Queue: 2 jobs
Job 1
Amino acid sequence: MLFGRNKKNPIKIADKGVVEWKYTTCGYCSTGCSIEVGLDKAGEAVASRGVGGADVNRGKLCLKGIFEHELFRSAGRGKTPLMRDRYFDDFKEASWDTALDKVAAEISSIQQQHGPDAFAIVSTGQIMTEEFYTLGKLARGVIGTNNYDGNTTLCMASAVSGYKRSFGSDGPPGCYDDFEHTECLLAIGSNLPEQHPVIYWRLKQALEKRRFPVIVIDPRVTMFAQMADMHLPITPGTDVVLLNALAHVILDEGLEDRAYIEAHTDGAQEFAALVAEYDPLTASRICGIDEDTIRNVARIYAKSGSAMTIWTMGINQSTHGSDGVVGINNLNLITGNIGKPGGTSLSITGQCNAMGTREWSSCSGLPGYRLLEKQQDRKDIADFWGIDEEFFPKKRGLFQTDIFPAIETGQIKGLWLIATNPMTSMPNTARIRKTLEKLDFLVVQDAYADVETNEYSHVYLPAAIWAEKEGCFTNTERRVNLISNVVKPYENSKADLWIFNQLAKRFEQGRKIRFPESASAVFDELRHLSKGRMLDYSGMSHQKIKAQRGIQWPCSEADETGTARLYTDGKFQHENAKARLIALPFVDNNERPDEDYPFWLNTGRVVEHFHTRTRTGKLGNLNKFSPTPYMEMNPDAARELGIHHGGYARLTSRRGDAVVMVQLTHRVAPNSVFIPFHFHECVNRISLGLLDPHSRQPAFKQAAVKIEAAASQAVAAKNNATSRTY
Ligand code: SF4
């Protein structure tokens, strides 16, 4: 026996009494981890574990996934439909028939009085692809409102817009396997270890086998920046300037892939003329990165045999988010880094099925990346659904961020929110509250009755959550994963698919269209509608997806395993099959710190929580590690203001104020602070959210604030409860 072995106190893993493990896919982020939920003898979910044979996560889960089974019986779940006449009355329980009759009647009444677009729908990135498609059928083919949008507008709209402008279509070209091949990784505005821990682990695994430079561009010294070979602490909101300067150096020094540019792109001349203005010295004065570093990064990137760029909200949530994505695509097009192993642009998506909504929900168009603006696309879908093509509008309606102002002005009278929580997620909380109070009718469909936005609803519909139902999610790398049904829906909650189908029956137009009842029958419609297109599902089925632990589209009928990368042949989705190099003049149009509001306010995530904490805020193990909102502040700046570590500070912007606990850290510059966005009545009381002109995505990450010491938490709580700045 080895010395001391019998003296050790080994960790004991509690026996949870699991008698069966059921396969499914994680329902939080877009990484798409395969997960097994353990059921005990009574059929209760008591454990979660990663699936070893799944390519995405190879047995790993992050903190959220490990405790995901606790969601099924977590506090705040909705048990039965609720109704009331006015939002400040008490709710009364209702039957599903009564609640759905009421919703259908209110929609019809508002549309008859004020026109079809006076009723708006805003959905999510959380429900299954089959549910998104069915909701789109209901919204576009039955209810007929054009003011229908999803959570994409707060999250990935800039990526969608940038892909479309550069490549002619949405659809991330790369995949996680690119980490295994790349010779240079550039990450912009992505704190991968906290936002997407399992993708980060895939990157680390690749780095353990083979060294390659990792360059992180972020105003804050994030966890990712700490492990990087180079960290570029960029001035907030100036990504386009830096990207133009990198392109300037590459073209100036002849480091571009001239053959690729000539064969596969348009617009090279205009692009070269524009970036000629962004020499490193001029750029350094705007973006805060010195000219030597700009030159070094440009050379490293261009001279790598293959280089890739990943990004998240640091790029997207900006007044020029779409331009930032186009700038990344420009960089990869001039260096020939699209469609080859290790050479790509790869947006790291947020919600578990943010991709599914982009593909199939019809929010921004029609199913399968079809456009309302294209007559043939309208005809394809109208014929398949069996309705008149003229029922569809000829261009998309309002984005989510324009729907709320349209409520303010009285253009929109009714709203249906599905698994989304604007009272916490939208910028300028006070303005959103006022908007919701103004609605004639608000229906909230959510797994949680205590979601903040439900305080303003007239009808609440309790939805089943995650693996209480079945269907598919698409992850960041276009992999379609299966969510199998693990347990029954909680109490009297129902699957979103069932709710959409039941509501459709209550409209005359809904009785003209076929609404399949099972997710697999809906999936057959997706296969049919995508056959032969870039977004091709025709070779997939629920059974094949489960057997392979996910399949990446395009997957044609003849294809067994799907496709890892797009544009490998250099043919893009614009009409002439070429990608576009697009000149991006920098427009400095955001709020900036000044004498009155001298600090940059940056927002982001923590690893323990997901979005507005509707789910993770209910789980003890996650709250234990991250129970309260806080602000990261530089110690030097704090000292000048008499603010102490662990004390409280009040932030004030031109919109409102919030009081938070202070963590002193050199992660943030003396003129910047950072607050996680997950907490209600916190950072979005002060955020501005100016909109990107292409994607209409808000600039959550750049606002100007002033800061002062706050006396105590009690004062803070009192002031947070009473302060309403409009
Ligand atoms: Fe779930 Fe994302 Fe964590 Fe994977 S990384 S377990 S998908 S939250």
Note: The domain at 82-149+352-519 is CATH 3.40.50.740 (Rossmann fold).
Job 2
Amino acid sequence: MKIIVPVKRVVDYNVKVRVKADSSGIDTAGVKMSMNPFDEIAIEEAVRLKEKGIASEIIAVSMGVAQCAETIRTALAMGADRGILIESDADLQPLAVAKMLKVLVEQENPQLVILGKQAIDDDMSATGQMLAALLGWSQGTFASKLNIEGDGLTVTREVDGGLETVSLRLPSIVTTDLRLNEPRYASLPNIMKARKKPIANMKPGDLGVDVTPRLTVIKVEEPPKRKAGQKVGSVAELVSKLRTEAKVI
Ligand code: AMP
């Protein structure tokens, strides 16, 4: 079984982001970029399926600026077999990404596409669902467990108030939640091996997709600053303050 894993290059989750002075977005100049953490989980899951003999080939796809090739290299070092970079300086929104993935799926014929449940930069949580809709494929989103059984799979989903298990027929779209697995670190020998793995380079036009943004960002603002806390001298003072000053927000 062939698996496609889309991996997005995002601001590293440890970075405290700064809003640009003109409120048009986040300042990414000189900021550390990494693979979206949910996509690391997606690669890990695909590699485990390969180690079990279920997957035969894993293709890591990244769309965006030329440096997305580094994100693909990380995926290759973790165990993906080859990469596809769709290079574009445009603001690639979920619908455009999903449309390009659809064309790649039609070209590559995978049985499974494993995406992150959301990208931590825009928090859209939309690309996997849009891809499933465009392809007319089954989908198991927010997966915390995945089991391939014959021509189907079961996906345990993290939903409000518990876990839901759905049974799907392949081909399918799966999106990963945090508890699905713990991604491995790439070993030095695997980082070296990854340098030799192929990365195909394309442009959105090669896939015949118009990536013009459909959404306009009006303004990006910092969240309001938290007010300093207060220290109280006794339980009685705390209770009194709770009675007279505390408000339900
Ligand atoms: P989103 O819908 O933007 O929250 O992203 C959900 C998932 O779609 C991500 O975790 C990735 O697996 C995939 N994805 C979104 N944008 C891109 C991109 N530019 N390149 C590769 N994969 C992407």
Note: The longest helix spans residues 37-51.
